[in-house]
Specification:
The complex is a heterodimer of chains A (about 110) and B (about 110). With about 110 residues, chain A is an all-beta fold. Chain A contains no helices and eleven strands. In chain A, the strands form two sheets. In chain A, strands 2, 4, 5, 6, 9, 10 and 11 form a seven-stranded mixed beta sheet that branches. In chain A, strands 1-3-8-7 form a four-stranded antiparallel beta sheet, with no helix packed on it. In chain A, β5 and β6 form a beta hairpin. In chain B, the strands form three sheets. In chain B, strands 2, 5, 6, 10, 11 and 12 form a six-stranded mixed beta sheet that branches. Chain B is globular, with a radius of gyration of 13 Å. The chains are: A mainly beta (about 110), B mainly beta (about 110). The interface between A and B is medium-sized, with 24 and 21 residues.
Chain lengths: ~110, ~110
Amino acid sequence: NAGVTQTPKFQVLKTGQSMTLQCAQDMNHNSMYWYRQDPGMGLRLIYYSASEGTTDKGEVPNGYNVSRLNKREFSLRLESAAPSQTSVYFCASSREGMGGYTFGSGTRLTVV
Amino acid sequence: GDSVTQMEGPVTLSEEAFLTINCTYTATGYPSLFWYVQYPGEGLQLLLKATKADDKGSNKGFEATYRKETTSFHLEKGSVQVSDSAVYFCAIVNTNAGKSTFGDGTTLTVKP
């Protein structure tokens, strides 16, 4: 089915470990986004990519890096995981900034 | 910066009751407005949208009207069902920034 695919769905990390969250979309969308969702805090933008080859910081970028590998793929990397990064991470894409987003099903990350 | 304020939840209704979830926003420029729905364990799904003043977005019995004079986009449904139980997010996309700002979400529970 067309849409946004995130991997993995679940992950447990130890403090200090690194990992990359993968995201791919097959809708030929230009813009892609990474959000984190925490109880009582809604969705917060980590990084976004308005088009292939560009990335920009969002509201909470510290501790994360991103790569827009090509038009389809946008990965999020945690270099040294911390318990404060325990969250549900969502990738989203849109054809253009003003359109609605298509979200992936999320990655549930726990850092112990 | 841009912000979205949603009616605090949780909201509990009986089946066939009328639903209103309030949403107001502050933004520079002329944003597009959205409602998303999130079912347990899933990502957000676009429910409806409106791109200019007095536009009415509608989908699956839900409606919301873009009210520029009151900077509001309240979600309504005339008769809710148990299957409507979910978290509802109001969001705006600013013409200048091209990024979404989300409200904190409102949890709706519909009882038989």
